[in-house]
Amino acid sequence: SPVDELLQHAKAADPSFASLLVPDRIHPSSPLHWVMAESVMKAWHIDPVVTEVTLSAASQAVTHSRRTEVSGVQAHGSALDWDQLDETLPLPFDFENALMNFVLKISDLASVDQQMLKVDALQPGAYKLTIDKTDVGTFSEAQLSSGINLALLKTPMWEQAREYDAALERRSELEQADF
Predict the structure, then answer these.
(1) Residue 62: which residues within 8 A CB-CB, separation 6 or more?
(2) What is the pTM of this model?
(3) Which residues, 6 or more positions from 70, have their beta carbon under 8 angstroms from its beta carbon?
């Protein structure tokens, strides 16, 4: 039923994209496989948290962290720096695929992939987020204080997840060829 619900929602939102979700009317596309995986994850009560970090810009301290080790929080002028070692990676969604982005927009798929960053006590303004020398985006004080889901952005962690997924795919292909 989650697949059927998504297909109905997709048809109402954009019939041309909806027809691509099951292109031959039998086999689901890759984004639709993620919708099925979401259903299984929710049925099995899989914890959707990849990581959670809350920092205080005022006190230069970690006020909350989960599934990650955060250290070295420092302010440099209006910049805030810290080191972070995550225990897990986000799901390897293909953000280069327009159909995947469509499914993320019309579904609840992001709810099973939460890599949350919050920064409290920032002055009003725009802040550039850089991770491992990669510019991730520019966010307002309000966005950062309410939380940003890094799992939905092209971060170095997402790149690692994509590389790992590709390696698993290659291994599966080799095992299938051997079989």
Answers:
(1) 53, 54, 55, 56, 70, 73, 82
(2) 0.91
(3) 53, 55, 62, 82, 83, 84
* Spatial separation of the C-alpha atoms in residues 6 and 155, rounded to whole Å: 27
For the chain (179 residues), the mean pLDDT of every run of 10, in chain order, is 93 93 92 96 97 96 98 92 97 96 96 97 96 97 98 98 95 89
| Cα angle 31-109-66, degrees, rounded to a multiple of 5 | 130
Residue 102 corresponds to which amino acid? F
Contact 80, 72 (CB under 8 A): no
* Cα dist from 104 to 14, 21, 97, 143, whole Å: 13, 13, 11, 19
Residue 76 tokens, joined:
């440099």
